Amino acid sequence: MTATIESPRSGRVAPQYRRNGGSRGNFEMIAWLFMRLSGVVLVVLIFGHLFVNLMVGEGIHAIDFGFVAGKWADPFWQFWDLAMLWLAMLHGTNGVRTIINDYAEKTGTRRWLKTVLYAAAVVIILLGTMVIFTFNPCPVVDGVALPGGFCPA
Amino acid sequence: MTAEIAEPASKVELPAGVGGGGEIPTFDVHLRVRRYNPEVSEEATWDDFHLTMYGTDRVLDALHKVKWETDGTLSFRRSCAHGVCGSDAMRINGRNRLACKTLLKDLDTSKPITVEPIKGLPVEKDLIVDMEPFFQSYREVMPFLINKGHEPTRERLQSAEDRERFDDTTKCILCAACTSSCPVFWTDGQYFGPAAIVNAHRFIFDSRDDAGDMRLEILNDKEGVWRCRTTFNCSEACPRGIQVTQAIAEVKQAILARKI
Asked: Is the domain of B178 the same as that of B116?
């Protein structure tokens, strides 16, 4: 006859070892590398952006609708702002993804938070990209130019 | 080669009034120990002990004094009691240390000294935790020499430079002070943890070992080195002074260098 001695585990935290070979792949490595590289590029882009907007010429006093419209008429600044938008959004999204992975304890919570995060990132990236490329400083609605004081009459 | 200067004979200056051996100073300590007994209650509680200890005593001596003279039900692990076996890692005043290497006089004895089990691993009783998740990660990185070449008839020779490459990570005593100080490990029990990476590092950078690629592939996992947030808790906790965070960074670089 055999007696079963109960395992002296605390029962509060059941140790589960769910690691398996299924999660292999280079995604985490690429994400880690992207954070470092995009971080370096963003430092240049953001400080360049701040310098041009706030320091050059009249500096902060020159910023108005016309200033932004003028910048986006130039493909160079279109590309600069596009790169800044994409890199900052992906960098930030990946950072928050990391924080969710680190701190959300329940699988359900983690999944839910990440869904909201990715949805927000996609909307902002698409909307921003659309604005940069379709921006029209002199919109004409029903044959009437919208007031702005900037567009040639 | 320079001639070595002979070490002078050790000499202890005693004050005039003291005859024979110098008297060791004593002081009172207030020890607060985290107690947990699943057979009595699911809740962990604090127990207070007031002890008179000597200036040469360590936290482990205080725990012994409690267990041997006051409360025999106090449970904790210890084996060698001299900082080599790595059995008595615990959270003393909020920091992971070995009880056998922490002198009471180095702690603030004007306040209670708190002793808790290490975090992130399931507590079994009082200061004893289930080390199985820790050792599972350790086993997964294959912490043994794998050599595909012919077995030499004598020992496998290695240059001093090659040996130096992984010298730091050979010091690990598997006490789990690093892994149980890691905030990522606290919330995600699936993370390999610093200790497993340190022990993988010890073989990855060993010139005699041939399975470095396999270990790098294992640590390139979602729960591998990329979960490290370089908070340096592990380097601070290590009782052997291993630069754990640096070792993890070296493994990250080795994975990158191999893939790119």
From this structure: no
